[in-house]
Design a protein that fits this description.
46% helix; 19% strand
Length: 332
Amino acid sequence: MAVSIIIKTLNEEKRIAATIESVLAALGDLQGEVIIADSGSSDRTIEIASGYPVVIAQIVAPARPSCGIGPQLGFQHSRYEYICLIDGDMLVDAGFLDAAIRFLVENPAVAGVTGHVEEMQVSNLEYARRVQRNGPENRTGRIDRMNGGGLYRRSAIEQAGYLSDRNLHGYEEFDLGIRLRNSGWEMHRLDRRFVQHFGHSLNSYRLLIRRWKNKYLHGIGELLRASLGKPYFRQVLQELPELKLWGAVYLWWALSIALILFVPNKSLAVALVLALLVGIVALMSMRKGGLRMGLYTVVAWFFHAAALPAGFLRKRRKPELPIESRIIGSAP
């Protein structure tokens, strides 16, 4: 059995050495290759990675960084029958690859298998919010997507068309998951850890602003645009509960604007708008266990809802086309 391990990177100088070392240790006696799929790092990521027996592929213009471009870049330079996908700030558990390959061999209808992603930066409200969520995609057993990566079967990826859509700045795992399921494949989460994820140490609100600037928040709108006209479009609408939430946010904004425009007493109108805001923040604070998380949750709603139409309207490139890239270094 042979494995191509793809490590997505963009300015990961702090963690890339530990990530590569964990991957090489996880490979053990397995035949394999490690591919650094870099989206244009400007720090020492490439310099550090060059000291290890890895292939380094980096995008070149006109390719632009996105969450979807790294996995596909690595896939187009990979060779082996199994594809393991991780981020450049993760540590792979020893023994996971052996267990995952064994599961795929024993379950030929399964396209991909993963494990639990342990979030290590829970002081950041965004990652703490991830830990609090118990969506079906995070449970053990059959799942609808593999958030955080995992081990895929190459034949399944080829049947689904491509590993990831270069146009997506987010939701690339969901997009792959629904394409695989639409092709008749299943995915599975083992009840064991796959990786430790160290994530960003930025202040939560700065991370939110950063994700607005790098278009990460455009992902759901881009996903809807990518799914238009596809046989699974209705399924996408049904399986993303956040769409109902963003719809509720739009109604909230419309009501607030209507109050300000049509209530003659403007002081009363503003007071009603503020009372509605305070009430919703208070409700979420009770549900989330404190004002800090409640306020952040509502602010994050606003950012996500505002980003959806921007993502939907973004111009797309064909995801099947080769990604413009260069090989900087190759394993000896």
